[in-house]
Design goal:
36% of the residues lie in helices and 33% in strands. By secondary structure, the protein is of the alpha/beta class.
Length: 163
């Protein structure tokens, strides 16, 4: 949170004052502080982008509390999506495949994306079509949306999915 200037911390000689949505006009800082003290409020800078600062008559502590509350709310609304990687082999056993699929379902339910990577060693490159069929079967079983389509390189196949 950036520093919010109020009352004597304001370096300007003249400020534009707003009170309850009404523009009271441009006046000296001392006069604005006097008006604020009569109402048991503070002069708080809301915009310092112009030559004359725009200030409101507010309770400073309440204003800071509201700003912090908004920032916390924005952090809660911001969802970080992670990308999880599941590595497979074309000759994976059914039990191992089911375990990997269960992990994948957990990741997808958390809102993460999952990349399936199937690597092939030396002569296994001849079995790339089997690997493609297995990955397509996995995608159908999970009933997911393909984020990035099957990418076939010389020694691996990969696909990115999301819920």
């Amino acid at each position: 949170m950036k520093e919010v200037l109020y009352n004597e911390n304001i370096k300007a000689k003249e400020v534009r004052i707003i009170d309850n949505g009404q523009d009271l006009g441009i006046m000296s800082l001392n006069k604005a502080i006097a008006i604020a003290q009569e109402k048991n409020l503070d002069v708080v800078v809301v915009s310092a982008k112009t030559d004359i600062f725009v200030c409101k008559l507010l309770d400073y502590k309440k204003y800071i509390y509201e700003i912090k509350k908004k920032e916390k709310q924005q952090k809660k609304m911001c969802k970080v999506i992670e990308i999880k990687t599941i590595q497979l082999r074309y000759c994976i056993s059914n039990h191992d495949l089911n375990t990997k699929l269960n992990h994948t379902k957990e990741f997808l339910n958390e809102g993460n994306k999952v990349i399936f990577v199937m690597k092939f060693r030396k002569k296994e490159v001849d079995h790339i079509p089997k690997g493609k069929i297995l990955l397509e079967k996995i995608i159908q079983d999970l009933n997911v949306i393909i984020d990035k389509p099957l990418l076939v390189t010389t020694k691996q196949i990969s696909v990115t999915v999301r819920k």
